[in-house]
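Researcher: Structure for this, please.
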Amino acid sequence: MSQPGGYTIAPGEEWTGLAAAWPVIVASRATEPGHLKGKVTQLHLCCAWCPDLPSVFCLNPDSSKPFGYRVAVKDMLAAVLAHIRRSHET
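Model: Predicted structure, token format:
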């Protein structure tokens, strides 16, 4: 969406397309001891290209519960794009 001055502050299609095609995996991880009030298992969207599979986006605060976060795909894509820009040369 263009602003009145004829420009946009949103990332261009080359970036949004890259984020949409970026390989990710869903990993189940326990939080560190002492985090919150004990360990909980969380589901994370992780970068499949990074050797240590860093979390890009937390999908669920506690996977032992019957529900997770309610998220939009655009939120996940924004997190993936932020990771790409921080951690990968493009």
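Researcher: Any notable elements?
Model: The longest strand covers residues 24-30. The helical segments are 13-21, 73-87.
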